[in-house]
Amino acid sequence: MRAEAVPSPREPIFLGRETYRRRRLIDAMRLLPVVGLLLFLAPLLGGGVTGYGTASLGVFLFAAWFGLIVAAAVLVRILSRAPGGVAFDPLEPDAAPPGDEAESGGA
C-alpha cells in the first residue's frame, strides 16, 4: 500500500492587496508608450479622409501629448507614495528598500 502524501502548506496564490495594486500601476506605466504611439498614429490612420483640418489634428496631437504627460505624472505620484518609493519592487528577490545600502554592501 502506498502512503498518501500530506500536502505541504503553500504560500497563498494571491498577492497582497498593496503588492497587486503596485504591480498594476507599474503595468500601466509600461503601457503608456504604447497608448501614446497609437494616439500619435491615429491621425495617419484616417488617410486624409477624415473631415478634420490640419489645425484640429495638430491640436489633437498636443492634447494627446499633454494627456500622456499628466497620466505619467499621476502614476509616478501614486507610486512614490508607496513604502520604498518608485524604484522599489517587493516581488524582485534582489531588490532592497532604499536606505538598506549597509545590508546590501552599497557605497
From TrEMBL:
Its domain of life reads Bacteria
Membrane-spanning ranges: 31-53, 59-79
Q: Where is this region: Disordered?
A: 86-107
Please provide the record's keywords in A-Z order.
Membrane, Transmembrane, Transmembrane helix
Report what the protein is called: DUF4175 domain-containing protein
What is the native source organism of this protein?
Answer: Sinisalibacter aestuarii
